[in-house]
């Protein structure tokens, strides 16, 4: 255990929040095993650990969402037993979740109102919402409906909603997982400001460089137990990762002899009106992706990536069949099932709701995407054994950690669910894989497993299209990178030799001609 124990900041007499021997059992499974944690005012305290290490469980107990099985929590030195999140909020504990809890068809202001105690009028609340978002530099239009917003904007709502409750203690569960570097920088400024205001922050992240930069203290969990509390600034990203996994992280290896073959996914001058008035109009998108190749799509969230995914997967149909060609077949107007039968597979950005049905078991979720092109259905009958086998194979190949063989999707930790979804699709050995944010919320070890699997899939002859906001990830695994901006896709450039600066400029719209506004509303 490293001895880089953090200094107690600013001589506060007592921690703001303490857990002493906090334990949470699910049946025989110990999700938290006697965890001691001290969080002080004016401290940004990182909570680190592999997927399934118990981080979310611990913060759910602190936020009153679950009751600990054993142990104690203290708030400003006094024992705290929480009846639920509203009591946590009334004490000054706020939380921003990894999975957003927003209603798509309501406006920003309506969503915020639902999370508050209702003591002020809607008009006053909306004015305060604008004020808080302006003061903290998190711009939001209270009148827009959530379904029209990018992931980054949605997260802003969650943060502003938490800040409107004026928390003394703010828990953030992987807040930068879907943010661009610029959006993340904005958030760090907000967090530094909250710290200067005397608040405490408990910060869950898998991005170790950002933890080093931002956090004063780090507590590391492994398999439900605390293994270390240290000063992350005195550690390296590698030493933090070693503490998390209890060993070295495997390096991703690109196959030396990967050959590109014939075009397997071709997009021809695809223009598409969005399904909603504020969505992004796809404009003249063309690219060709060969077998054996990985093409990355970079870009700030909300520039048409979701719309392109919808068009490629068949959730939205293209105006002309030939605009999307999968393995030589004009597929632009085929359903998602027909596209799967052609050998295509799709991993959307959102894990719960889009990638899986949360309340269904993993085996049932395997059936949802696998029924068209696997042995799970024969002569109209569903084969339970084949469904379970898919779960077992994904579990083994991708080290999916879960409490039993076939739990509900929603019970898996975020990273483990992502490993399951990516595993489920890769194990179908697709000819074409379209994947969005493959390692969102996934720990360093598991991210390496997923990236390696994408590389291996390409090495086996598949065409792989990866949309990611993580430029480091794209640099590590792609052959070429194109950038989406306002519904346009730039000409792909070779990854080798593409500088972050150049990609950053493309992400900001430079050298892409704007003939017409991308948003259908002209916004
Ligand atoms: N309601 C539940 N029933 C059974 N097991 C659960 C439940 N909630 C969590 N677990 C299990 O407890 C373990 C810890 O999960 P937790 O979500 O706390 O992990 P985590 O460290 O936050 O992971 P991640 O980084 O992937 O979000 C996991 O193995 C998970 O499957």
Automatic annotation (TrEMBL):
GO molecular function: ATP binding; ATP hydrolysis activity
Domain ABC transporter: 17-248, 265-511
Pfam families: ABC_tran
Keywords: ATP-binding, Nucleotide-binding
Family: Belongs to the ABC transporter superfamily.
Name under which the protein is recorded: ABC transporter ATP-binding protein
Function according to Swiss-Prot or TrEMBL: Involved in beta-(1-->2)glucan export. Transmembrane domains (TMD) form a pore in the inner membrane and the ATP-binding domain (NBD) is responsible for energy generation.
Key word Nucleotide-binding present: yes
UniProt superkingdom: Bacteria
């Amino acid at each position: 255990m490293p001895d880089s124990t953090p200094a107690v900041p600013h001589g506060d007499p007592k921690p703001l929040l303490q857990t002493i021997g906090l334990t949470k059992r699910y049946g025989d499974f110990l999700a938290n095993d006697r965890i001691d944690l001290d969080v002080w005012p004016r401290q940004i305290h990182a909570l680190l650990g592999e997927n399934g290490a118990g981080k979310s469980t611990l913060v759910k107990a602190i936020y009153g969402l679950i009751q600990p099985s054993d142990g104690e929590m203290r708030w400003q030195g006094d024992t705290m037993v929480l009846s639920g999140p509203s009591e946590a909020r009334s004490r000054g504990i706020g939380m921003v979740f990894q999975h957003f809890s927003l209603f798509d068809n309501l406006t920003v202001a309506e969503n915020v109102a639902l999370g508050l105690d209702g003591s002020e009028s809607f008009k006053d609340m909306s004015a305060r919402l604008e004020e808080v978002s302006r003061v903290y530099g998190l711009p939001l239009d209270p009148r827009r409906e959530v379904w029209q917003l990018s992931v980054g904007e949605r997260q802003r709502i969650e943060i502003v909603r938490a800040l409107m409750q004026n928390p003394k203690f703010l828990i953030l569960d992987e807040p930068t997982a879907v943010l661009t570097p610029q959006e993340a920088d904005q958030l760090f400024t907000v967090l530094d400001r909250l710290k200067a205001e005397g608040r405490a922050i408990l910060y869950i992240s898998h991005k170790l460089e950002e933890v080093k930069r931002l956090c004063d203290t780090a507590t590391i969990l492994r398999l439900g137990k605390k293994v270390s509390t240290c000063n992350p600034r005195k550690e390296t990203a590698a030493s933090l990762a070693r503490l998390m996994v209890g060993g070295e992280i495997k390096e991703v290896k690109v196959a030396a002899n990967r050959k590109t073959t014939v075009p397997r996914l071709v997009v021809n001058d695809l223009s598409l009106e969005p399904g909603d008035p504020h969505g992004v109009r796809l404009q003249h998108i063309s690219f060709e992706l060969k077998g054996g190749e990985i093409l990355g799509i970079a870009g700030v969230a909300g520039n048409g990536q979701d719309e392109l995914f919808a068009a490629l997967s068949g959730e939205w149909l293209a105006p002309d069949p030939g605009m999307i060609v999968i393995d030589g077949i004009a597929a632009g107007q085929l359903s998602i099932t027909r596209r799967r039968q052609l050998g295509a597979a799709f991993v959307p950005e959102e894990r719960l709701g889009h990638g899986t049905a949360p309340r269904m078991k993993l085996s049932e979720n395997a059936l949802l995407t696998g029924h068209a092109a696997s042995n799970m259905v024969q002569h109209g009958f569903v084969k339970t054994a084949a469904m379970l086998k898919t779960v077992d194979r994904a579990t083994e190949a991708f080290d999916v950690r879960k409490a039993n063989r076939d739990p509900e999707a929603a019970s898996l930790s975020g990273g483990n669910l992502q490993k399951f979804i990516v595993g489920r699709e890769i194990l179908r050995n697709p000819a074409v894989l379209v994947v969005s944010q493959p390692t969102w919320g996934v720990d360093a070890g598991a991210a390496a497993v997923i990236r390696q699997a994408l590389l291996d899939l390409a090495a086996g002859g598949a065409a792989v299209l990866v949309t990611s906001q993580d430029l480091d990830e794209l640099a590590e695994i792609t052959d070429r990178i194109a950038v989406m901006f306002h519904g346009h896709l730039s000409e792909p450039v070779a990854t080798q030799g593409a500088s972050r600066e150049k990609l950053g400029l493309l992400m900001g719209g430079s050298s892409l001609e704007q003939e017409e506004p991308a948003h259908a509303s002209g916004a």
